[in-house]
Amino acid sequence: MGAPPQHLITTLLGDYWISRPEQLPSAALVRLTEEFGVSAVAARAALSRLTKRELLESSRIGRRTYYRLTDRAAAVLLEGRQRIMSFGLAQGAWDGTWAMAAFSISEEQRDLRHALRARLRWLGFAPLYDGLWVSPTANADSAAAVLAELEIPMSTVFRAEALGVAGMRAPQEAWDFDQLRRTYEDFVARYSPLLERVRRGVVGASEALVARTGIMDTWRTFPNHDPDLPVELLPAGWPRAAARDLFVEVYDTLGPLAEFRVKQIVAEFEPGLAELVAHHRTSSILALS
């Protein structure tokens, strides 16, 4: 699927080993990444880097090394997973107000500008103008917290209603709806053949693991482009719901097969841990929110 090894390892642990206190042998994690075409050398280097970043904790028993997610990493993954799995669900009526984040950062502080923009996008904002970011759905307090954390003094956050004056730019023009539509349509075109094979029951366990990880890894990028824009702002025939239905059916249906493959691999190294491997359905994740 082409994901960086560090990202792949945390994704797999988040999908099949989230919040477990037990540690998995490094050999099992290396073997899991080989299913995705990652070399053993690259996988072991990724495990080492994740440990240095304090996303994994490790221990040694004899000549074997074992790993698990740190509590902090697991908490971040759980929070992100809730947002990813709830993305695209039907919403209540929008109240018509916009969260606005205004700021000024000098050109010399490019790293700070990049960090702020990435954080605001994750919260659901987009740039109406360079220093004015807007969102119909984001929590304004969360934006204020990010600005405070990054220590940006020339900034403010507020909520407002658009006047809708003719000739003036509407807040929703911060998003490129044509590009967004193409992104959803490309997703549906890419994964529809897989959905047909899933429905026919012709996907094996190894392919199920790779395909399930791949579709989730693609779906998780959508909140960076579309903050679950309210239906009141969307063009007619918007394809988000169809894309979500496809994602949910593939992800949930392939879950048992993918879990079986992870259990097979873990059992090669620690049979006693294999039965603790578990997958999660979108509905079970949403029930925790």
Q: What is this structure's SSE topology?
A:
Layout: H1 5-16, E1 24-25, H2 26-34, H3 40-52, E2 56-61, E3 64-69, H4 71-86, E4 97-103, H5 110-123, E5 126-129, E6 132-135, H6 140-149, E7 155-161, H7 177-200, H8 205-219, H9 222-225, H10 240-267, H11 271-274, H12 282-287
Antiparallel strand pairs: 1-3, 2-3, 4-6, 4-7, 5-6
Helix pairs in contact: 2-3, 2-10, 5-6, 7-10, 8-10
The separation of the N and C termini measures 29 Å
As an assembly, this protein is single chain
Taking all residues together, what is the mean pLDDT? 93
Order of helices and strands: HEHHEEHEHEEHEHHHHHH
| Rg calc | 21 Å
Number of strands: 7
User: What shape does the CA trace take?
Assistant: globular
**Number of H- or I-type helical stretches:** 12
The strand order across the widest sheet is 5-6-4-7
Helix share, percent = 40-55%
Outline the low-pLDDT stretches.
Answer: none
What would you call the structural class? alpha+beta
Strand content: 5-15%
| Main β-sheet description | 4 strands, antiparallel
Task: Describe what this molecule looks like in 3D.
- With 289 residues, the chain is an alpha+beta fold.
- Among the domains are: 97-161, Alpha-Beta Plaits; 175-268, no CATH class.
- The chain contains 12 helices and 7 strands.
- The protein has helices at residues 5-16, 26-34, 40-52, 71-86, 110-123, 140-149, 177-200, 205-219, 222-225, 240-267, 271-274, 282-287; strands at 24-25, 56-61, 64-69, 97-103, 126-129, 132-135, 155-161.
Quick structural overview:
The protein has 289 residues and is of the alpha+beta class. 54% of the residues lie in helices and 12% in strands. Strand 2 and strand 3 form a beta hairpin.
